[in-house]
Specification:
The chain is of the alpha/beta class. The strands form 3 sheets. A 7-stranded mixed beta sheet has the order 13-12-9-10-11-14-15. The protein has a 4-stranded parallel beta sheet with strand order 3-2-1-4, covered by helices on one side. Strands 5-8-6-7 form a 4-stranded antiparallel beta sheet. Helix 5 crosses helix 6 and helix 11 runs parallel beside helix 13. It is globular, with a radius of gyration of 20 Å. The termini are far apart.
C-alpha cells in the first residue's frame, strides 16, 4: 500500500488555488488548505481534506509562526505557497521551515530579483531582453500614455495620459514605464535548481481590466521566442519551483517586451493543467523525489475561461465580448473551471461575483478601474 502524501497549500481563497487543490486531490493527495478568509473558495471543494484559518500573510511574522507550528505538529510532506505574500514570506524563512517539510520555492536571493520590477528590468537589460522604456521623472517622459506601477507584486497600477495628471496623483515610489499596446503572453515553467523541468505558454484572449489584468480567458500556444526569453531569464536566476514570465507583444514593432516575472503560481493555472502540464502535481512529485521526468509537450489551441468571477466581470464591463463567449460554449476545445464532480466551489463563487460587481459599479471602476490609456496617433 502506498503511503499517503500530505500537502499544505496556502491562499485557499484564490481561484487558481482551487485548481491546484482539485489537481492534487484527484491524484490521491491529501490536501490541507489555509486562508485568513473563512469563506475561501477552496474550502468548499471535495478535494480539500482539511480547511484551516491562518493569519493574513501580510503580517509575515504571525503567518510564518503559524505555518511553522502547523507543519511541526501535523503530517505535512510538502508545503506549497500560492499567493505573492505567502511565497515571498516562505522563501525568506525557508531555512527555518525546511526541517519540517519539503518546500519547492526559489531561494530568497533569486526571489528578491523576481519580486522587484526594477531589479527584474535591470536583469533583463543585462541579458538583452526587450523591456518598456522607463522614466525616472516626469520631465524624462517622451511620450504618453505612461504606466505607473507598484515596484513589488501586482499592486497599484495607473495609466496616465498627460503631464497634468501627475499633479493630482500620488505616485511616490512608483515605477514609470511607457505603455505597451498589444496582447499579453505568458511563459510558465517549473525549475529544479536552475534546470527547467516543465514549461507552457499562453496568449490572453480576454482579461480584466481590459487595459491589462488577470486572464478571464486564455489559449494555450507555443512560441519559440517567448520560450527562449523566458528560459534565459529564469536560468539566469537559477530558479527553483514554479514561475511565470509575462510579456506583451508590442503592436507597433511585433517585439515581445517583458512586463514582469511572477515568482509563484499564476491565475491561469487551470489552462496549463487542461493542456497537459499538471504543474501542481509535478511540483509536489519533484519535491518528494528530488527530480522528475521533464514535460515539454502539451496541447495547443485549448481555450480556458473562468466564468466566476473573472469572465462575468469582463462581460459586464465589455458586453461586446458576449458573442465570443457564446461561440466558446460550443467549441469542443474550450474548457472552464466549472466542475460536475466538484460543483460547490463554483456555486459559492456566484454571490461573490455579484458583490464584486456591485463594488466595481459603486466605485465607478467597472470599465477602466486603472484609467484608460489613450494612444496618440
Amino acid at each position: 500500500m502506498e503511503q499517503q502524501v500530505n500537502v499544505l497549500i496556502t491562499d485557499a481563497a484564490y481561484t487558481h488555488t482551487l485548481g491546484a487543490v482539485r489537481s492534487l486531490g484527484r491524484a490521491g493527495i491529501r490536501v490541507t488548505a489555509v486562508s485568513p478568509d473563512r469563506r475561501a473558495v477552496s474550502f468548499y471543494s471535495r478535494y480539500c481534506h482539511n480547511k484551516v484559518l491562518c493569519p493574513d500573510p501580510g503580517n509575515e511574522e504571525q503567518f510564518i509562526d503559524f505555518i511553522k507550528d502547523y507543519i511541526q505538529e501535523n503530517p505535512v510532506d510538502v508545503l506549497v505557497p500560492v499567493g505573492y505574500l505567502s511565497t515571498v514570506a516562505i522563501s525568506r524563512h525557508k531555512k527555518e521551515l525546511l526541517p519540517f517539510a519539503r518546500i519547492p520555492v526559489a531561494e530568497y536571493e533569486s526571489m528578491q530579483v523576481a519580486c522587484n520590477k526594477q531589479k527584474t528590468m535591470q536583469l533583463a537589460a543585462s541579458l538583452d531582453v526587450p523591456v518598456p522604456d522607463e522614466y525616472t521623472s516626469v520631465e524624462d517622459i517622451t511620450r504618453f500614455p505612461v504606466v505607473a506601477k507598484d515596484p513589488y507584486g501586482s499592486g497599484k497600477i495607473r495609466y496616465i495620459d498627460s503631464p497634468q495628471e501627475f499633479e493630482r496623483l500620488d505616485l511616490n515610489g512608483s515605477l514609470l514605464q511607457e505603455y505597451i499596446p498589444g496582447a499579453g503572453y505568458g511563459f510558465f515553467a517549473l525549475f529544479n535548481r536552475g534546470e527547467v523541468r516543465a514549461y507552457f505558454m499562453h496568449r490572453r484572449k480576454r482579461e480584466f481590466p481590459v487595459t491589462g489584468g488577470a486572464s478571464t480567458c486564455a489559449e494555450s500556444i507555443y512560441n519559440e521566442e517567448v520560450k527562449r526569453i523566458g528560459l534565459k531569464l529564469l536560468e539566469s536566476l537559477r530558479w527553483h519551483g514554479v514561475a511565470m514570465v509575462e510579456f506583451k507583444k508590442d503592436n507597433r514593432d511585433g517585439v515581445f517586451k517583458l512586463m514582469e516575472i511572477n515568482p509563484k503560481f499564476w491565475g491561469s493555472l487551470d489552462l496549463s493543467i487542461a493542456s497537459g502540464v499538471n504543474f501542481p502535481l509535478l511540483l509536489v512529485n519533484m519535491a518528494l523525489n528530488d527530480d522528475i521526468k521533464p514535460v515539454f509537450r502539451y496541447n495547443t489551441g485549448i481555450t480556458f475561461r473562468w466564468p466566476f468571477p473573472e469572465d462575468t466581470v469582463h462581460l459586464c464591463a465589455h458586453p461586446a465580448s458576449g458573442m465570443d463567449i457564446i461561440r466558446e460554449c460550443f467549441d469542443g476545445r474550450s474548457r472552464t473551471n466549472l466542475s460536475l464532480d466538484d460543483p460547490l466551489p463554483n456555486l459559492v463563487q456566484i454571490p461573490g461575483t455579484c458583490s464584486r460587481l456591485v463594488r466595481l459599479v459603486g466605485s465607478g471602476g467597472l470599465r477602466y478601474p486603472h484609467g484608460r490609456p489613450r494612444m496618440k496617433r
